[in-house]
Design a protein that fits this description.
The complex is a heterodimer of chains A (about 400) and B (about 270).
Chain A: E1 17-18, E2 21-22, H1 31-46, H2 48-62, E3 68-70, H3 72-78, E4 82-87, H4 97-110, E5 115-120, H5 124-136, E6 140-145, H6 146-151, H7 153-161, E7 165-169, H8 176-190, E8 194-197, H9 207-215, H10 217-230, E9 236-240, H11 245-251, E10 261-269, H12 280-283, E11 285-289, E12 292-296, H13 321-329, E13 332-338, H14 339-353, H15 359-373, E14 380-385, H16 393-405
Parallel strand pairs in A: 4-14, 5-6, 5-8, 6-7, 9-10, 9-14, 10-13
Antiparallel strand pairs in A: 1-2, 3-4, 11-12
Helix pairs in contact in A: 2-4, 3-14, 3-15, 4-5, 4-9, 5-7, 9-11, 10-11, 14-15
Chain B: H1 3-13, E1 18-24, H2 30-40, E2 47-50, H3 61-72, H4 77-86, E3 95-98, H5 101-107, H6 109-118, E4 121-125, H7 135-143, E5 147-152, H8 158-167, E6 172-175, H9 191-201, E7 206-209, H10 215-222, E8 227-230, H11 232-235, H12 246-263
Parallel strand pairs in B: 1-2, 1-8, 2-3, 3-4, 4-5, 5-6, 6-7, 7-8
The chains are: A alpha/beta (about 400), B alpha/beta (about 270).
């Protein structure tokens, strides 16, 4: 089971940059904490005990390795290449987020931090952080935009059941980006005792690297399972990209495999007009947001633009810096998928395979169906099914109801 | 040397403590901002003007709410620059822009700095630009004679603090507390020792900000520092119910600034 282990990937340069992207654009107050975190993480990476502890949690607590599953009826429906699903939806808590939160909480414990904070949008990362904190007996505060608290009531209740305190954020747009701002502020005043478990491959160095490494178990398992199950590497691997953690975890172990085409799918929303989507790699430009230099959706003054996606987990105006780097080098291609196509793929996967995907993952499934239909039956397409869709059932029902009326 | 450096240098030589108020540009509108600058011109040593930003991670709730109001009123960088360029005597009160690097980068460093200079601005504070990342902006600022003010916090290590102090221009901003901007009931006990140490490393005046909400605190801080920055407690005056009585908010801010000036022993405030 060598693949269900913790193996850090190549670090960025000394300033925390992947190519020209990344770095640290934060107040001076955070500099010492970021340096301490970087040093503690480097040390943990070299410590066999840490690696063993994390591997053990991934196996016995998360339930890894997650299966690589051949979606036969979905494949027949597309009428082309084989479609295989990497089943991150089968993890404990129902998504890939737990891979990262366990790693970070384990690290926080090594650093003798007595308190954990996190931000959450849809609540998946909040639930995964609250879960890891319950497992380790650490107090947990989750910042969540007031608007999201209202929209994602079941996850708020879950977090509370798990012993976390949910702190509604009333500033700015009252969504994920304000929750990140608020968590950063808390951290600035509490760095001595508190670790901030960021939920994606975003933020200042070393977060993008660390989160990628904790998620890279997805790609390592996929690589090994591909060889075991179909005797070679896939031709194409597809993952959805919001902040980009499931995609970074899936792609990074495959970056060196030149024959494997990598495709990231952003939220295309309603249209490519400003404010109608959440696709910075497709429609934005390089800039600064949340402590990092990466593609971002901004107006001409540098103010962050409002974003829209049917999927709360993709509804973010920035993206991890390593994705910007992969875009710049051309190693990964990025495209986007509209709300409607994602919703259609959600239904198709449910009916054809008996799997309710998260709306985030449905974006990747939609693009996989298109790609597969244009390829020969010998080709193999792997999709990262990053989470399950129970959380989205009520929202989908609402959306389909609206469609029926129009 | 530019206006800011001259003014603060002269005041330090004369033993006068600098008073640097902070207000947000465009909260609630730019006419009011202009009126506040007028009202502060014979009270303050220099004025920090916050360029509103949608995601200000270094700022507390009072200033973020102020930024949100300014942005909702449609304030743009272009309008701020135009308002400042129209002011009759732009150099009477040296101006410092407090601005996120997100905004500077988006405009382009050269064009942003040139625009600041054309607006009569003499210093920049960029709270989300670490010293290690500031080389390029520093070079552009030097060329345009704009002072790039660096920040030191209680969590800055001595080794870095010395390098940051040496690089700072205009003044050195000592952040009094680990955290965000905003008023505090009590200032940290070790503040005086920290500021005294930092002053030894700095050629430029050392001014203390973040958390100073009462004139009495300003007086205490001024015993060891060269000046104080007052932010949230002034900006709070803009957050109330306007009811069309804009003059009174401007006047309240002036009165508050006068109280701080008196605490610092400024003669005109007696």
């Amino acid at each position: 089971m060598g693949e269900t282990t913790f193996e850090p990937g190549p670090p960025p340069d000394a300033s925390g940059r992947f190519g020209e992207f990344g770095g640290r654009f934060v107040p001076e107050t955070l500099m010492r904490a970021l340096r301490e975190l970087e040093a503690a993480y480097d040390e943990a990476c070299r410590d066999p005990l840490f690696q063993r502890q994390l591997a053990d949690l991934l196996k016995h607590y998360v339930g890894r390795p997650s299966p690589l599953y051949f979606a036969r009826r979905l494949t027949e429906s597309a009428g082309g290449a084989q479609i295989w699903l990497k089943r991150e939806d089968l993890n404990h808590t129902g998504a890939h987020k737990i891979n990262n939160t366990l790693g970070q909480v384990l690290l926080a414990q090594r650093m003798n931090k007595s308190r954990i904070i996190a931000e959450t949008g849809a609540g998946q990362h909040g639930v995964a952080t609250a879960t890891a904190c319950a497992r380790f007996g650490l107090p947990c505060v989750v910042y969540m935009g007031e608007e999201d608290v209202r929209r994602q009531a079941p996850n708020v209740f879950s977090m509370r059941l798990l012993g976390a305190t949910v702190h509604p954020v009333q500033s700015g747009s009252r969504t994920l980006r304000d929750a990140i701002n608020e968590a950063m502020r808390d951290w600035m005043a509490s760095v001595e005792t508190t670790h901030y478990v960021i939920g994606s491959v975003v933020g200042p160095h070393p977060f993008p690297r660390m989160v990628r490494d904790f998620q890279s178990v997805i790609g390592r398992e996929t690589r090994r399972q591909a060889i075991d199950q179909f005797g070679r590497l896939p031709d194409l691997v597809i993952a959805s990209v919001g902040g980009g953690s499931n995609a970074a975890g899936m792609f990074s172990p495959l970056i060196g495999d030149d024959g494997v085409e990598l495709l990231g799918v952003e939220a295309g929303g309603r249209s490519s007009q400003r404010g109608d989507h959440a696709a910075p790699l497709s429609h934005g430009q390089p800039g600064i947001l949340h402590g990092s230099f990466s593609y971002v959706l901004q107006d001409d003054d540098g103010q962050t633009l409002p974003v829209h996606s049917i999927s709360a987990g993709l509804d973010y105006p920035g993206v991890g810096p390593e994705h910007s780097h992969w875009k710049a080098t051309g190693r990964v291609r990025y495209t986007s998928c509209t709300d409607d196509r994602a919703l259609e793929a959600f239904g198709q996967l449910a009916r054809l395979e008996g799997i309710l995907p998260a709306l985030e993952s449905a974006h990747a499934v939609a693009v996989a169906l298109e790609q597969a239909s244009r390829r020969s039956a010998d080709d193999i397409v792997v999709v990262c099914l990053s989470g399950r869709g129970d959380k989205d059932a009520a929202e989908v029902r609402r959306l389909l109801g609206e469609d029926d009326r129009t | 040397m530019n206006e800011l450096e001259l003014r603060l240098g002269r005041q330090r030589a004369a033993g006068k403590k600098a008073l640097i108020p902070f207000i947000t540009a465009g909260d609630p509108d730019l006419d009011t901002t202009s009126a506040i600058l007028d009202a502060l011109s014979d009270v303050a040593s220099a004025c920090e003007l916050g360029i509103p930003y949608s995601d200000p991670i270094a700022d507390g709730p009072v200033i973020q709410a102020s930024y949100t109001r300014a942005l909702e009123a449609g304030t743009t960088l272009e309008q701020i620059a135009r308002m400042l360029a129209c002011r009759p005597t732009p150099s009477a009160l040296p101006l410092i822009w407090m601005v996120s690097y997100a905004i500077i980068y988006r405009q382009g460093l050269d064009s942003f700095v040139a625009r600041a200079r054309q607006s009569g601005v003499s210093g920049l504070i960029v709270p989300d630009l670490l010293f290690e990342e500031s080389d390029t902006l520093q070079a552009v600022c030097e060329r345009e004679h704009l002072a790039l003010v660096q920040l030191i916090t209680p969590t800055t290590t001595s080794e870095r603090a010395q390098r940051i102090a040496a690089a700072s221009r205009g003044f050195l901003y000592y952040v009094s507390v680990a955290g965000i901007t905003g008023e505090r009931n009590a200032l940290p006990a070790e503040l005086c020792d920290n500021v005294a140490r930092v002053r030894e490393w700095s050629d430029v005046p050392v001014c203390v900000g973040f958390g100073i909400s009462r004139p009495e605190q300003a007086r205490q801080v001024a015993e060891v520092a060269d000046g104080v920055v007052i932010g949230s407690s002034l900006v709070r005056e803009l957050s109330g119910d306007w009811g069309g009585s804009e003059t009174s908010a401007v006047e309240r801010i002036r009165q508050k600034a006068l109280a701080f000036a008196a605490a610092l022993g400024h003669p005109q405030a007696d």
